[in-house]
Amino acid sequence: MITKSQKNLAQWAMDYAMKNGCQAARISLYNNSNTSFEIRNMKIDSLQQASENGLSLQLFVDGRFGSISTNRLVKEELEKFIKDGIDSIRYLAEDKARTLPDESLYYKGGLPDLQLYDSKFNNIRPDDKVALAMKVCDEIMGKDEHVVSSNSSYSDGDSFSYIVSSNGFDGDASNSYFSLYGEASIKGEGDARPSSYWHESSLYYDELIKDGIGRKALESALRKLGQKKTASAKMPMVVDYLNASRLLSPIISAINGSAIQQKNSFMLDKLQQKVFSDKMTVLDEPHLMKSSGARYFDNEGVATNRLSVFDAGVLNIYYIDSYNANKLDCRQTVSSPSILTMPAGTKNMDGLVASVDKGILVTGFNGGNCNATTGDFSYGIEGFLIENGKTTQPVNEMNITGNMLLLWRNLIETGNDARLSSNWRIPSLLFDNIDFSGM
């Protein structure tokens, strides 16, 4: 955790910077630790344990800006470090768009603890961590004649941070996480080696799902036996809840302030316009208790609030930090998303599949890209052919192509199966008229 003496050190560093030539400053103090155990075929393959603490100083000097950081947290050494940093920043080009946020935007405190840290974090024994990873691996090895190899891992970490700014912000945050992962590789036809994975994560150790991870990975891999291409066509597409975020990611990147400011976005000049399908509603809900991604302020100290990002296809906000707000001469919002959610529909993935006469269920993306300026995309996919509302032939080595604007206009239905352990809670999605390239 961040101690009172460490906070005092950060306050001192800010005051010292201000007395030695800075017109403004933001100081960030952080303590992080993480552990991971990786298992391969029931043997420990690697282990890692790391801890880090440091001080990051963002300094505004005579219309210029620079960021310096150190893990040497001793006043005597920091004095020279800060002075040298200030002198170096004076050589940089002037950039008057670099400022601290307006102090009226800062989080002022007073809200309940978001409960993001597990107080038991330091009480979990290494033997228990290894045993969990071994259990995941054991759920794969020897459980089917097709199994070639199994991999599993346990990881955890905690993070503490404290930010103080010269124009009035003062805030700290903490969180923990725990994760289990399993991957199964199996022998397919010829040289084919299909593989699949499953993972679980939680902010709290006692709430981490610890059973069935390897089994689900193996079951998913076995369903891939006999994968092959199917005929090219324009068909409906169901994307499962594990992969739906892959298609939302280019949209969120395109409404980031830096992309807008650089005019490198297919969402340019789309604010307050109906861009997508009526089914496209996305909320940013940063204050959900005990939830990954929850926070009361962003990396600049700006207060987060519940936001309607898209409402029935209408784009309501851009994510704009102080720098890009100054460059664009517009209102600052918040620098990045916290927890993205979509309203739940009435069906899970199987229900969406059942509504499709002929199409493809996508259960994985294999490479590809999206052009940030135009929105044109091409992704490799794998999954299953849907016939008469049921999944049949496993498919792979196929591509979907199109444009993100058209893709999301063709969103027909959202599922009700979003993973609540994720900070992007995106359910299974059903799109119409998708171009599939195969045979």
How does this model look, in words?
The protein is an alpha+beta fold. It has a six-stranded antiparallel beta sheet with strand order 3-2-1-4-5-6. Strands 7-12-13-14-17 form a five-stranded mixed barrel. α1 runs parallel beside α2. The protein is globular, with a radius of gyration of 25 Å.
* Helix amount: 10-25%
Strand content: 35-45%
Low-confidence stretches: none
Order of helices and strands: HEEEHHEEEHEHHEEEHEHEEEHEEE
Largest sheet: 6 strands, antiparallel
Count of alpha/pi helices: 9
Global structural class: alpha+beta
Q: Compute the gyration radius: what is it?
A: 25 Å
What are its keywords?
439 residues, alpha+beta, 6-stranded antiparallel β-sheet, 5-stranded mixed β-barrel, 20% helix
